[in-house]
Amino acid sequence: MRLTYSPASPFARKVRIAAIELGLIDKIEFAPMSVMPGQANDDYTKITPLKKLPVLILDNGDVILESYVIVEYLDELAGGNRLIPASGAARWTVKSEHSMLQGMLDSMLLCRYENAVRPEALRWKAWSDDHWNRVWAGMARFAAQSDLMTRPFDVVAIGLVCVLGYADYRFADCGWRKAFPTLDAFHQKMLERESVKISVPPAA
Fold first, then answer.
1. How many Å apart are CA 89 and CA 103, to the nearest integer?
2. Which of 49, 58, 120, 130 is 20 to 30 A (C-alpha) from 185?
3. Is the pTM of this model over 0.90?
4. Can you give the pLDDT at residue 204?
5. Nearest 10 degrees: CA dihedral of 176, 138, 65, 76?
6. Residue 116 burial by Cβ neighbours in a 10 Å radius (0-12, 13-18, 19+)
7. Torsion angles phi and psi, residue 69, rounded to 5
């Protein structure tokens, strides 16, 4: 299998962590890829018209899009039910919480592009503030979970690690640790896992 990725991508990091946890990391070839708004990448567009990272390309040429779907595929490949419950209420809770985290990462990425890529004269502060407020409200929601420190290391825990890691990487002065000490404690605990530690993005 081949995974298109960037070390800076929190979505690709999610897949990397999952692959390590599932014992599949040695079965994946990593193909660095650069995608930026406003910059053409015709070769990559042939793989995915959405031009998003990551994409998993199977040995038979089939393409699996979107980080959650890739994690779900890897989880099934490894025997199933390790990162995503197979059925019942727990499955829908995990899928819903992951969707929230995915939306938070989407909002963070939009803030990043708005503030760092869009010409300053065209920036829309109210729009980026609204997206950041969604991230902050999401962090507050997870910080309030009573089982945060004891929950299984599933796709939700991996997603939350990636949200907090991306906040450190691209929004280092946002103050999430001071605002949410329980998330800070969770993050420090997760950094004890090899999969989390070795997938930390490079210095910005």
1. 21
2. 130
3. yes
4. 66
5. 100
6. exposed
7. -65, -40
